[in-house]
Amino acid sequence: MYVDDVKNSRRAPTRVTTSQEAATPHVVVIGGGASGCGVADNLRSLGFGGKITIISSEPYPPIDRTKLSKALITDASKILLRTESMLQDLDIALKHDKVVKVDTSSKTVTTEGGETFKYDKLVLSTGGSPKMLPLPGFKELGNIFKLRTVPQTKEIVDATQGGKKKVVVVGTGFIGMEIAIALCKDHDVNMIGMEKVPLYSPYYCPCPPLLFSLNESIDGLERESWETKSAQCYKKCTNPKGSNSTCPPPSTPLNPPPPPPLKSAP
Questions:
Q1: Which residues on adjacent β-strands are paired with residue 108?
Q2: How high is the pLDDT of residue 90?
Q3: What digits encode the pLDDT tens for the residues 75-107?
C-alpha cells in the first residue's frame, strides 16, 4: 500500500496521538492546496496534538495542482495529495467553504456558509490566481479560460472537443508551456509571451548561461517536436547560436535588475 501511496504522492506523515475532544490549541489553515496540506502534515509529523482545520474553497481534498497543466486531468481523485480518509486518520478536519472574513482581534474566521471558527494560530496558504488581461471582451466572451482548479481544467477540455481547434496560450512560463504541450497533439497551438525566451524571468533565473543552454535544447529538439505537432512558439530569440539571433551567447551575462525591495509592514 505504501509503495502505491508514494507513487501517487499520497504517503501520509507519521501518525501522532491526538484528542478528538481537544479544542485548543486550534490551528486553522485557509487554503486547501499543497502548501496548506503540507503545513497540516508537518504539524502532525512534528508531534502537534491540537486541533487542525483546513478551509478550502474547492470541493475536493488537496490535489497536486501541477498535474492540471501537465495533463489537463479532469478527475480530482487521480491527483489527490491526501484522501478524505487519510485526513480523518490524522485528525485533520477539512471544510469545503470560502472564507469571507478574518477577525484578528477575536481570532475568528467566518465562511460564506455562515460557520465561524475560532483559532489560536492562523495560516494563510491561499496561493495565487491567474490574471485576466484588462482588455475588451475578456469578461464577456465565453472562450477565454484560466487554469487553476479542476472545474477550470474541465472547461478547457470541453472547449477543445469536436475536432482540431486554434488555441492561443498567453504566457510562456512553466504552466503555459505545459498547457501547450498537452494540447498540441490534437490542436493548433500558438504561444504568446513578452520574454526573450520561454521560461525566462530576471527574478528567478540564477544562471543566465544555463538558461540559454536550456533554450538551445528547446530550439533544437523540443521546439522542433512541438512544431511538427502544430505547436508554434513565438518569441524574439529563435536560436542563441544562429546568425540571426538577437540574444547574447551563453557566455554573456544578462545582469538582470535586482528584485524590488520588500516593503516593511506598517
A1: 103, 118
A2: 94
A3: 999 999 999 999 999 999 999 999 999 999 999
pLDDT digits (tens, 9 = 90+) for 220-252: 444 444 444 434 444 433 334 444 434 444 434
**86, 77 Cβ separation under 8 angstroms:** no
Domains of the chain with CATH codes:
2-124 (3.50.50.60), 160-233 (3.50.50.60)
| Contacts for 265 with CB less than 8 Å, ≥ 6 apart | none
Which residue type occupies 184? C
Which helix (H) or strand (E) covers residue 169, if one does?
Answer: strand 166-170
Three-class secondary structure assignment of 61-116: CCECCHHHHHHCCCCHHHCECCCHHHHHHCCEEEEECCEEEEECCCCEEEECCCCE
Up-side HSE of residue 52: CA atoms within 13 Å toward CB?
26
CA distance 248 to 212: 9
